[in-house]
Specification:
Length: 123
């Protein structure tokens, strides 16, 4: 049983992920003029795999309990004239996508808190 605050824990985890991702993207944008700077990003797929519980149902299956921390990875892209690989259009697009996801999480959080409020009031 997850408990009454189970969904709020998931929302908090995803909120932290998008906060960290926005800091990494903002760092990329800030270093757009730094020679030989290589942009970084957070790997979404690894975080998603960590949030979905997997079971090993057959001895031939790979063990799903591989604890991997979310880490920054370098983005492979074409170098500029000074060796800087930051593509401002892509970075701004990723920042906008992250902002949309944060707004969506805020809406989900508002609805979850509304459900809690209704359950406390007994309606």
């Amino acid at each position: 049983m997850k408990g009454i605050f189970g969904e709020l824990d998931v929302i908090e985890k995803w909120g932290a992920y998008y906060f960290d991702r926005s800091k990494v993207i903002q760092s990329n944008i800030a270093n757009a003029d730094t020679p030989f700077y290589k942009p970084k990003d957070l790997v979404f797929e690894k975080e998603l795999e960590a949030s979905i519980p997997l079971k090993k149902t057959d001895p031939k299956h790979i063990d799903p309990s591989g604890e991997e921390k979310l880490k920054e990875v370098e983005v492979q892209d074409v170098s500029g004239y000074d060796g800087n690989k930051v593509n401002l259009d892509k970075e701004l697009g990723k920042l906008a996508e992250t902002a949309i996801m944060v707004r969506t999480l805020n809406e989900v959080l508002r609805k979850e808190l509304g459900k809690l409020k209704l359950s406390i009031q007994g309606r």
